[in-house]
Amino acid sequence: MTDLDLNAKASAYIAEASRRAWDIPGLGENTALRPIRKVGIIGAGTMGGGIAMNFATAGYPVTILETQQEALDRGLKVMRANYQRSADRGRFPQEDVDTRMACVSGTLELADLADCDLVIEAVFENLDLKKKIFSNLDGVMKAGAILATNTSGLDIDQIAAATSRPADVIGLHFFSPANVMKLLEVVRADHTADDVVATAMDLAKKVNKIAVLVGVCPGFVGNRILRARQLQANKLLYAGVMPWDIDAAINAFGFRMGPYQMSDLAGLDIGWSKGATTQNPIRDALCEMDRRGQKTRAGYYDYYYARKPSPSSVVEGVIRDITGAKPSTMTRQDIIETCIFPMINEGLKILEDNKAQRPSDIDVVWLNGYGWPGDKGGPMFYGDQVGAAAILKRMETLGAEDPDFAPAETLKRLAKNNGSFLELDLGGLKTATPAAKGA
User: Using CA atoms, how far apart are residues 130 and 151, in angstroms rounded to an integer?
Assistant: First the structure.
């Protein structure tokens, strides 16, 4: 098959996969939707403000809750600036800036969310804090209101258990920047009601998102697979491969940014504080040196010219000191297989755990949320192009080094039978629970 033929095949597959993602087996077409007339957002930071913009743009009245007036004012100011920037670029008329901002109001009182039909919590990733917020919401919100969390990977079942209405709780994982990124992971917890799922999927269309229904597990679908790639990339540093060599291989595969380019953009100090010792001593050392990414003009890379990264002799020295590894002669193809094949293997484990409906849904997540190259169709599509046998061979090697990367049982079966990743049917997500009383 020529590259042109493969590109055409990938394009047709992506279109069909995107269509199928909206199809929820076991969810009746006549499932009644809960009316969503007003939306509440908890948190006016980067995520909360971006989420609010989606709803304001679609014409929904939005109330944003913050704990401090200064934080609320700052969040509203950023929202207006984002709208103004888009209007200045001609994306919509100037008068729409005021029209959209008129949909948004702010408050410091939780009780002001009581009449909202949907509340989305968008505070930082702390399970105890989120459980406290949901417990408080439980005492304030009207019957039938949907309580959603924007967590990127915490246990939503625990969050739901903090309420007396777990059937009303769902995950709505927006991707940053939330007003730009198309993907929305709709996360069904153990007790989430069918009509809550149906309403969330319908709402995703109304706010112009591409929704994929997933189940509760650490990182859900997207971040769980991303973690597999990042762990392998970090292991390569200890084998003497430099960050820029890893990124160059991932760029050559088709990603616009590799793992260390992404880290520098996001900030190395996310989840880190001065003096902290984490499972990533290289990152710790760089942060202690105030090399925290693009914002400090130094991270894994040096930034002499704006955002243009340059390999750093300082970072190379830090890595050599910490790892003791000699320079590696690993080929670019070996780097690609070491980072990419574990993603495919983890996708199979997600399907085995019944945390995704179908293989193509995994591809839709990675195409729309993480920049997977379109000509390679997504991890599961690419798995079929490479073949299970080749992936199994690499995973047997990686699994021997680290049991967490042992080949999925499904991978072994596919390799033995020359089977297809895309034709797998491992049962999908568990059946949803009945609607909550009073909904």
Answer: 9
